[in-house]
Amino acid sequence: EPKKKAAFGSVGRRIPYRILHVINQDGESLGNMHRAEALKLMDQHDLKLVLLRENAEPPVYRLMTGQQIHEEQLRRAEKKKASPKPGVVQKELSFSSAIAKNDLETKTKQIAQWIEKKYHVKVTIRQAK
């Protein structure tokens, strides 16, 4: 099983593809070019080539400054924190605002049990007619 590559990071000079689609640091497409041309451009402007989309044909790389790379890594880290983690079970409970006292107590106990088991609990209350 091949090792999974980091989702985002500085690539440097080890580029396995001969032809790349290059985007400059302002987000404008520079078109498809040979790996050597992209490396020369990277050196001229003192930037780094970063892989954006590997499964595109040809793979998409972007020229970025160190600051841009850092900001993008922070943005992706925040996004990853916000998304629910795999393995975390989310339970959802829905009931009416006209729920009987006994039913409410039962559902409250159920919610407490789920929270003890470290489940994420989502409660929806519908307004009674």
Automatic annotation (TrEMBL):
InterPro entries: T_IF-3_C_sf (IPR036788), T_IF-3_N_sf (IPR036787), Translation_initiation_fac_3 (IPR001288), Translation_initiation_fac_3_N (IPR019814). One of its GO terms (cellular component) is mitochondrion. One of its GO terms (molecular function) is translation initiation factor activity. It comes from the Eukaryota. GO terms for biological process: mitochondrial translational initiation; ribosome disassembly. Residues 11-78 form the Translation initiation factor 3 N-terminal domain. Keywords: Initiation factor, Protein biosynthesis. Coiled coil: none annotated. Belongs to the IF-3 family. This is IF3M factor.
